[in-house]
Amino acid sequence: MTIVKERIEALVIARLATSPRPLSAPDIAKALQRFAPTQQSPVAWRDEVEAVITSLQERGVVDEERRVVDPDELVRRIGKHGGRTWTQLVERIFPALSLGVSGNDAKVHARLSGRDAWTAAIAGRALGLWTQGTPPTLSAVCDAYAWQQLGLGGKPKRCPPEVRAVFLQRELQSDSGPADRLLRLYAAKHLDAPRPELRALRDTLVRNWLAGRELAARTNGFAAEVRDVARTTKNGVFGDRKVFISAVWDELRRHPTWVALTLDDFKAKLLHAHRDGDLVLARADLVAAMNPDLVAASETTTDGASFHFIVREDRP
């Protein structure tokens, strides 16, 4: 799992900004350990967090005593939010960011108040049943999914317990059980959470957010905009069908929706969209014939593979 640099910096800044006293680098790493990639050792995680702190200090974001210099630094990183304590940030704000919910969306945050509410939000996003407004209840998600699988139109009505459960059972390929329990299992499985418990779900949301893996409703919209920019841009084009990743990022950021999108965030979203089949990435082979700056800026790596281009769709 590749961690997005700007996001782990935001998490470190959040911990420092909410501490009443200066924290040592090991203390910070320990506080953030719950969000570390599951395959990463505690020692490797500590080293990574310490490197992030050092980088923040070198750039003047954090002082020598590991205090955040600018009180508005976290707001610049994640937007306005209602989190005042570390607990509020890691139990409400950061997990919600992974669902595409802004930190100051009071209506949505008011609904995310317990395990069932978070389960419903996660499953609703994953199943395409919650795309706007406040998240549905767990019961509403169960009914809507059954309604969808039955191919029925209109507003979903309450379904018999057996009907609500059978489609989730098929989705999970599991034994039968109550629909609410099956939906909790589905939410945990979709996130790769170790257990369908509230803390495990929220921690996994933050872990996935650090790696650029959100359940935001606009994922397909992102891919569509990227494909459109790649198809029409005249910058960074190589051959007939390839466009350098960094060139597409430069142009996409001119759109108001994506003005704050960092290159690392962009690459993480690209990898997610590539895995989902929403767009196609390709690697650069004949690098000697290419602009070395574009090659270096565009390089996007995951699981031993490297990509440099977004492949253009054929023009309609």
Report the C-alpha radius of gyration, rounded: 21 Å
**For the terminal residues, how far apart are their CA atoms?**
36 Å
Unreliable stretches, pLDDT < 50, 5 or more residues?
none
Strand line-up across the major sheet:
1-2-6-3
- Tally of DSSP helical segments: 15
What global shape is seen? globular
Helix content: 40-55%
Count of separate structural domains: 3
Total count of strands: 6
- Which structural class do you get from the secondary structure elements? mainly alpha
Please outline the major beta sheet: 4 strands, antiparallel
Order of helices and strands: HHHHHHHHHHHHEEHHEHEEE
The oligomeric state is single chain
Give average pLDDT, whole number.
Answer: 91
The proportion of strand residues reads 5-15%
